[in-house]
Amino acid sequence: MNELHTAALDLAETGVPVLPLRVGKVPFGNCRTCAKNACGGRPNMKTAGPCHCPAPCHAWAAATTDPDVINSRLWRRAWGQAAAVAYHPGGAGLTVVDLDDADAVAWARETLPPTRTVATTRGEHWIYQGAMRSVNAVRNGVDLKSTMSYARWLGTGTGAPTPLPDIVRALADKAPATPRPEVQPVAVPARGGECRHRTPVFLERGIAMAEQRIHEARSAVHSTVYATFLAVLSTHGRCGCLTEDHIARLFTAAQTKGETARHCTEAWTNARTKLGL
């Protein structure tokens, strides 16, 4: 048992769902059973915890507090290859205000109520009690990590967490992290009179596979994001199946890999132009 494995167990004992991260602060890829989301993924990918397979699959959704899972053979192998411990803030009833540079930290100190603070490589994590939706780039250098997201565990920090203030919730409403480009579908008659893409399982599996492809990119992330957007739009872009929530999930996956909101919007627009949408 290495120090990361031990730290994960200690953290899980406090009720915080944990998962291992690879080098680059990215989750482990799905196992063979779950590759390309062949297992069907977790229902709606909106709850924390592993799917039915015992491996740390499905990124943030693998986060768990179960010591039997954390100590299992497959998870032990992952801890042996891991570079860091991550946790699912929303699963612990927390929200992390991720301040990515000195300017963002200065803004937080002038604007936000004091709470638990954890130093990061480039800035600070401000941790509040209370969960909310995760949103990236609510302002320059500021991301909100809570539900359907993960944050790297960097220690307990200083101070006690205070209740999530309205000013943080308002950031998500006023400056959404993932720009949602308007989809202008082109009506195309579907075989049998009904668009097969509207089948929930078919569409959900396609989006989950796209998220996984982006998550597993080890290089040429921008090219992978564009190619993935192109693939999704080529299948689902002409029949009106895609919703803003689906697009937001794709943008979130890309931003988790380091893409900016602007790059996501450009890639989406370029893919639509390529397909004549």
Secondary structure layout:
Blueprint: H1 3-13, E1 18-22, E2 26-27, H2 67-70, H3 73-81, E3 84-87, E4 94-99, H4 102-111, E5 116-119, E6 124-129, E7 135-139, E8 142-145, E9 151-152, E10 162-163, H5 166-174, H6 200-215, H7 221-236, H8 244-256, H9 261-275
Parallel strand pairs: 6-10
Antiparallel strand pairs: 1-2, 1-3, 3-9, 4-6, 4-8, 5-6, 7-8
Based on the model shown, name its key terms.
10 strands, 277 residues, alpha+beta, Prim-pol fold, 4-stranded antiparallel beta sheet, 3 domains, globular, 6-stranded mixed beta sheet
Detailed description of the structure:
- With 277 residues, the protein is an alpha+beta fold.
- It folds into three domains: 3-87, no CATH class; 91-144 and 157-174, Bifunctional DNA primase/polymerase domain (Prim-pol fold); 191-275.
- The protein contains nine helices and ten strands.
- It has helices at 3-13, 67-70, 73-81, 102-111, 166-174, 200-215, 221-236, 244-256, 261-275; strands at 18-22, 26-27, 84-87, 94-99, 116-119, 124-129, 135-139, 142-145, 151-152, 162-163.
- Strands 4, 5, 6, 7, 8 and 10 form a six-stranded mixed sheet that branches. Strands 2-1-3-9 form a four-stranded antiparallel sheet.
- A hairpin with a 2-residue loop joins strand 7 (135-139) and strand 8 (142-145).
- Helix 6 (200-215) runs antiparallel to helix 7, helix 6 runs parallel beside helix 8 (244-256) and helix 7 (221-236) packs across helix 9 (261-275).
- It is globular and about 55 Å long.
